[in-house]
Amino acid sequence: MPDPTGGHTAEAGAVTKLLRDWREGDPRALELLTPIIYDDLMRLARARLKSEARQCTLQPTALVHESYLRLAAEAKLPVESRAHFYAIAAKIMRRVLIDYARKRRAQKRGAGLRVTLRTGMEIEDVRNPDSVELDDALKRLAEFDARKSQAIELKYFGGLTTADIAVALGVSVATVGRELRLGQAWLHRELARASA
Predict the structure, then answer these.
(1) Which of 82, 83, 100, 155 pairs with 9 at a CA distance of 20 to 30 A?
(2) With contact defined as beta carbons under 8 Å apart, do 101 and 113 qualify?
């Protein structure tokens, strides 16, 4: 998947300026920002849903539109940079997917959106957890190590690179790599225990 936060420095600077203008309450900034970020959000959604094609009826366009509506509804979104924006977008996409999975689970006793962790993370050798199980596990991880949980969320739901996660979390690339490995190992053990 192409890096959603990559691109030309001039474009990245323009996006950051528009995000800051939006944060400061300029509604026109959102109008100018929308066509720029839409393609990036579509790439994120396609990548996130690609492995879910057989289990999920949610389309990338629907995921992007719902995520965008939630983003746009945020008054004075506290965005500092382009990487920070994609971190927020990843969190919102996660919420949309979890809400969708919970709704489907309620409709079909026990059936949920099945999630595979195929973004360079090696958790799929445990049975594929559904998104509700994954969300619950990430919440448990966040209780004692919020940074590991955030790093996994940004990688898995946001498709961010290690470098972009480092910028979003304000840590080094090496720290992000370590957090992803340790968080992944914890999730692997936790999801295996839950499936036993």
Answers:
(1) 155
(2) yes
Question: Does a structural domain hold residue 3?
Answer: no
Q: How many domains does the chain have?
A: 1
Helices 9-23 and 82-107: angle between axes, nearest 10 degrees = 70
- Residues 182, 174: Cα–Cα separation, whole Å: 12
pTM of the predicted structure, to 2 decimals: 0.60
Give the residue numbers spanning the domain of 40: 9-195
Residue 48 · residue 105 · CB < 8 Å: no
Give the pLDDT of residue 193: 80
Among the residues of the chain, which ranges form H helices?
A: 9-23, 27-50, 60-73, 82-107, 131-144, 146-156, 162-169, 173-195
